[in-house]
Amino acid sequence: MSKIEKLIAKFCPNGAEWKQLGEFCEIKTGKGITKIQGNINGLYPIISGGKQPMGYFDFYNRDANNVTISRVGANAGFVSFIKDKFYLNDKCFSVIPKDVLNKKYLFYYLKNYEDKIIDMQSEGGVPTINTQKVAGISIPIPPLPVQEEIVKILDKFTQLEAELEAELEAELEARTRQYEYYRNQLLAFEGKKVEWKTLGQVASSQLAYGSGASAVDYFDNIRYIRITDIKDDGNLIVDKKSPSEIEEKYILNDGDILIARSGATVGKTFHYKKTEEKAIYAGYLIRFVADKKQVLSKYVYHFTKSNLFTSFVENNKSTGSQPNINAKQYSSIKIPIPSFEEQERIVKILDQFDALVNDISVGLPAEIKARRAQYEYYRGKLLTFQPLVHS
């Protein structure tokens, strides 16, 4: 029997008493302050409605080791534990318990309950959490020795989870650098005899601009892909839009490559696959269609992630507030064209690296996600108590 099981058997074998927060906690909103009133050299963080301090201030209005809940804004309902003295803004409130409750135990319980607190946000306008609703949250109150042991266990879990996550993220960064190194080595062909052609020469048609349609709410499984939809890793963002009008000439086909031509995203690329939903591409994107007799489209896509391509973009984009590279310029970039056998070999190697580094369903990102889920599962188990049954 573990120590926590022994403590539960000793102090609360028949369950724990449940009370509402308002019965034994002071739930109090902070005092308004603007960012301008803050002091960058101040000693005390200003805790407001966000997940990070709004700034710093010369005075504090809350002691160290207290629980806060964001009250207003996009992060309303976010639960934090502040270890140092701090200034609490009016966009946040503190939850300070009486002696019957360990503050860190309260934090862990409310953090475990966070999704339900977020669901308390008011509808319409700026999301807001009503303190009276929070006051009505019921919480189990086992004896203090049990609370303290739960806190010890969860503190250790939190430390281990943070250390493991840091290790995994460091590993992910190392794998990413390794991937970039091999990609650049494989696609440079230094000291090797290989034919070089322009992108325009290995295209089955001229590189073409996309649709001028406006974006509307998503409908009929037809996605409108815009420059802002393409992430750094070449995947698309989750939020979807559809085009206001559908023209056949802008519908993407399997293997098409989209290249961003304007703005901060200039040079970003996306490889469309037939397994994805039907899609139309927007006007600030340029479509490349590979000539299948000369080149594999996936090989070209990997080339667009190489140093050769990114250097071309940096050296050829127009200066000013809106950098731009047109279709004619992209058509002129030179790309090494080895045999199909060599292209397939390179694609196979780089696809494996890509899956390991970028695919959320495999590799290290999935491991990080699994560890977080495991931690949250055990936290929930430790904080579950049956209502007290009096014998």
TrEMBL record:
<dbReference type="InterPro" id="IPR000055">
    <property type="entry name" value="Restrct_endonuc_typeI_TRD"/>
</dbReference>
<feature type="coiled-coil region">
    <location>
        <begin position="154"/>
        <end position="185"/>
    </location>
</feature>
<protein>
    <recommendedName>
        <fullName>Type I restriction modification DNA specificity domain-containing protein</fullName>
    </recommendedName>
</protein>
<comment type="similarity">
    <text>Belongs to the type-I restriction system S methylase family.</text>
</comment>
<dbReference type="GO" id="GO:0003677">
    <property type="term" value="F:DNA binding"/>
</dbReference>
<dbReference type="Pfam" id="PF01420">
    <property type="entry name" value="Methylase_S"/>
</dbReference>
<feature type="domain" description="Type I restriction modification DNA specificity">
    <location>
        <begin position="17"/>
        <end position="173"/>
    </location>
</feature>
<feature type="domain" description="Type I restriction modification DNA specificity">
    <location>
        <begin position="222"/>
        <end position="369"/>
    </location>
</feature>
<dbReference type="GO" id="GO:0009307">
    <property type="term" value="P:DNA restriction-modification system"/>
</dbReference>
<dbReference type="InterPro" id="IPR044946">
    <property type="entry name" value="Restrct_endonuc_typeI_TRD_sf"/>
</dbReference>
<keyword id="KW-0238">DNA-binding</keyword>
<keyword id="KW-0175">Coiled coil</keyword>
<keyword id="KW-0680">Restriction system</keyword>
<dbReference type="InterPro" id="IPR051212">
    <property type="entry name" value="Type-I_RE_S_subunit"/>
</dbReference>
